[in-house]
Amino acid sequence: MLTRTTRTTCLAFLCAALLSGPALADSERTMDIAAGDLATALQRLAQQAGIELIYSVDQIKGLRTAGVHGRYTSEIALHKLLEGTNLRVTVHSSGAMLIAPPSPAPADAGGRQSDSSVPARVNLAQSDEQLAARADDGARVSSTEEPTTLNDRVLEEVIITGTHIRGVRNETSPIVSLDQTYIERSGYTTMAQLVQSLPMNFAGGFSGASETAAFGNAAAQGQNLNRGTGLNIHGLGSLSTLTLINGHRVAPAAEGQFVDISNIPLTAVERVEILTDGASAIYGADAVGGVVNIILRKNFEGAESQVSAGMATRGDNSSLRLSQTVGRSWSGGNALLVAQFNKRDPLDARDRNFIVDAGGAPPDGPKYLLPKRNDKTLVFNINQSLPEHFDLTGNLIYSHERVRQQNTDDTATMETNSPVTDQWSAMVGLGYQPFGDWRFELDANASQMKTLTDFTDIDLPTQTITFLIDNYRDKFELWMADFKADGSLFEMPSGKVRLAVGGSYRHDKSHADREWIIPARGYQLHANDSRSVRSAYAELFVPVLSREQSVPFARRIDLSLAARYDDYSDFGNTTNPKVGLVWTPVDGVDIRASYGKSFRAPTVYEKSLFTRGLEIDNTTITGLDGNQVPIFYLSGSAPLTAEKSRNFSVGTTLKSERLPGAELTATYFNINYSGRISVPPFDDGMLFERGVYGSLITEIPSDAAAQAYLDAALAKGATFHDQLYTGAAGVRYVFDWRQQNAATSKIDGIDVSGLYTFQIANNTYDVNVSYSRLSKIRTTLLADTTPIEIVNTYEQPLKNRVRAMGTWLRGGFASTAALNYSNSYENASVLPRERIKAWATVDLNLAYDFSHLQPTGPLNGFRAALSITNLFDVNPPYATDPFYSMGFDVFNADAVGRYTTLQLTKRW
Question: Is the dihedral of CA 165, 166, 171, 175 positive or negative?
Fold first, then answer.
C-alpha cells in the first residue's frame, strides 16, 4: 500500500502532467557551441538541437569552426558552423542533415559523372535520445547509392546506460547526464571533485569512499589504503552503487569495497551518466542503488594540451595537472590517447583554525587531512570496422599513484605510510551484424587494482619506531566475458518490438596480507578469497502505443521487461525481474514508473572480514548517571547472509512551449531491504536507547567479569586495542559494533533536476539545478528492536542537498556561478544532542575562448579558465566528534576552504 508521501508525490506528478502545455516545437532554440574542432562542434549541435547529422570523418578532419551562440534554427546554426569550409548541407527525407562537399553532376553510360557526394563511411552526430532511437551498427552501402533509411549507414557504437538493447533508451528509469559542457562550466579538474559535488552522492558509508574517510567513523575506512574516492548514490552504500567504464566493470579498490575513480582524467571523459534507480535485472545484484557509467571520448580529431595549477588560500595545499590528448579518425574507425600527470601537496589540519580549536590538530607534528598525491594516468581507446560486417572495439586504462600520509596523535606519535597503487583495465569487444538490425557482441575485459604500503609509528621526542607493519598488500583482480545478441523481433503499428539476450561469466579474486614487525606478530593473511558468477539475462522493449496512432491522452506508451539469473559459486543463485512503463499523455509530458527486485550476496571483502577474527577496543560513553563509563566495542563481522530488496520509482519529465528552453525532471524512489548488510551506528547515548540496540549491548557486572570476558576472547584469537590504557578496568558494557545483517531498512526520497536556457540580446543564460531529498533511511538493527532513523544525523546522509548552477555566455566569454547547500541536522553521537548548522558555499568559474576573438592564428583553439571553489571561504559548520575531534563532519563538509585554479587549454 502506498504511504501518504507516495500518494502525494504521485498526485503532484499527475497534476503537473495535466497542467503542462504542448511540447516545445523544433524551431529556434538557444545554441551554445564553442569555437574549435568542427567534429566536436557537430556533436554539440546534435545534442543541443536534437538533430541527426551525417558526415564523412575524412571530410571534416582537421577543420575548425568559429562556433555559434544565440537563438537559431538547427539548419541555420549548422550553416554558421560550416562557414569558411567547402561543405554543404542537404536535408534527407528522414530529417537527417547530410554534410558533404558539392558534387559534380551524376554520370551515366554516356560518360557523365556520377554522384559521389554520399560518403561510404559516415559518423552520426545525434542527441542522446536519437542516439538511442536510431543507432544500428554494421549495415553498408556503396558510395553511389542514395540511402533510404538511416539504418543503411555504418554508425559508431552507442553506449546507452540502463539497457542492453541498442536503439532504445530505457526511459522507465531516470538518468542524469554530465557532459563535457557541464564539466567545463563546473570548473572542476578531477573526477573526485565532480562526483563529490553531486547532491545524490554521499561521501561516507561503511567503507568511507573518500579522501577524508580516515578521520570519520567508517567501519572499513582502514581498507581504503590509498585514500581513494568512490560513489555512494543516496547513501545506500558504495557496494550498492555499480560503477562502470564504457559500460564494463573494473576492479574495485579497498579490498573490493568501491571503484576508485579519482585517477580517471576528466579530459578523457565524454560524459558521466548516473542511473538513479535499481538495475539489478540489467547489470547484476550490486546495482541495487544505482549505476554510474563513465563514458570515454572517441570521436576526437587533432590534439589538445591542458595545464592547470591550483592553490588553497590558506596553507600549502597546491596542485598541478598536465594532460595531453591526441585523437585521429579515419574512414574505418578512430583512436584516442590521453596522458595525464597530477600532483598535489597535502592539506595539514594545523592550517585550519577550527580543527586546531577543536583539538584535532596536535602541535607536535603534521596531520594530513588530505594526503600528498602524485599520479600518472594513460587512457587509450580504439574503434575499427572490419570486413564481412565485423567491428572491433578496445580500450586500456593504466594509472600509477603514490600517496604520502602522515598523522600525529595526542601522544606525540606520528604515523606515516606511503601507499603505491597500480591500476589497469583492458577491454576488447568484437561485434557482428550479419542481417537486419540484429547484432552479436562478444566482450572480454580484465582489470586489476594493487596497492602496496607500510605503516610506521614514530615517537617524536625519542625518534624511535613504536609500531611497524611492512609490505601491506591489497590486490583485487577481475576477469569477465560477456555475450549479447539484440535486435527486432517483429513490428507492431506502434513500432518494433526489440529483444536483448545474453550471458556472462565473471571471476573476482581478492588477496591482502601484511608483515607485522613491531610488535613482532609475523605474517598475517588479511583476505584471500575468490568468487565466480555465471549470469543469463533477457530484456524486452515493447512500444505499446505511438504518436502515429493518434490515441487520446496516449502519445506514447512504452513497456520494458527484464530479468537476470545469477549463479554465485558461494551463495547460491537468484533471479531478479524488473518492469518499467513510460506514458506520454500529451506532448512534453513523460510519466514513468518501474518496479524490480534485487539480491546482493556479501562481497569477497565482507566475507573475508568474518575470517579475520574479532577486534576489541575500549572507549567511554555517557552512562545512565550522566558520567562517562568505559565500554568494550567489538569490530569485525558477524556471519552474513545475502540481502534482498524491492525497488519502486515513479517520476515525470516536463517540457512546455510556455517556457521555451525549460525542462523539469522529478523522481520518487522507494527501496525496502531485508537483511541489509550494515554496521550499527555508534551513539554516545546508546544506553538511553536500549529499545533501538537490544541485545547488541551486553551488561558486565564487575571488573572481574570484564577481565574474564576479555581473557576468554583473547584466548579465541581476538585482538585487543587498549585506547584508554586502562585495560578492562571499569568496563560495564559490551557493544557489538560488528558488520551484520540488519533486520530491515526502508529508504525513500525524491530527486529533482531543472534546466532552463534563454537569451536576451547577445547574452545566453543557462540555469541547471539539482536537488536530492532523502526522506528516510529507517533501519531496525535486529528483528525485535525499535526502528532508528539515520537520515539527518552526524556522518550520515542528509535530508536536503542542492547544487544550482547559472551560466552567462557572451561571445567567447563564459561565467558560471554555483551554489551548494546542505541543511542543518542533529549530532546524535554526543550528549546532550547537538545541532549542526546548515552549510552553503559558492563556486565561480570564468572562462574565455580566444577562438572567438581570433578564428585563425596562434590564439585559435586557446581557452583560459579561472575557477574558485568556496569563493567566500566559508568554514564547515562545527560538530563535536567523539573519536577524532576534527570539529566538523568529514562526510558532509570539507575543510579545504577557498581554492583557486587556473586552467589553460590549447587545441591544435
Answer: positive
SS3 780: strand
Going by C-alpha positions, the residue among 689, 445, 455, 541 that lies closest to residue 133 is 541
516 and 524 Cβ atoms separated by less than 8 Å: yes
Show the cell assigned to 123.
559518423
Does position 574 have pLDDT exceeding 70, yes or no? Answer: yes
pTM for this model (two decimals) = 0.82
Number of other residues whose CB lies within 10 A of the CB of residue 707? 15
Output DSSP code: residue 9: H
Contact (CB, 8 A) for 160 and 172: no
Give the three-class secondary structure for 525: strand
Q: What is the mean pLDDT of residues 859-876?
A: 94
> Is residue 132 over pLDDT 70?
no
Contact 350, 388 (CB under 8 A): no
833 SS3 class: coil
Query: In the 8-state DSSP scheme, what is residue 15?
Result: H
Set of cell numbers at residue 887: 570539529
Mean pLDDT value of segment 425-454: 95
- Supply the pLDDT for residue 30: 67
Q: Is the peptide bond before 543 cis (omega within 30 degrees of 0)?
A: no
- Nearest Cα neighbor of 277 from 246, 233, 232 is 233
Show the CA angle centred on residue 473, arms to residues 469 and 475, nearest 5°: 160
Longest CA–CA separation in the chain, Å: 111
State how far the alpha carbon of 230 is from the alpha carbons of 204, 756, 813, in Å.
10, 30, 34
Q: Is 542 exposed, middle or buried (0-12, 13-18, 19+ CB in 10 A)?
A: middle
Amino acid code (one letter) for 642: A
Q: Cα 786 to the chain's mean position, in Å?
A: 34
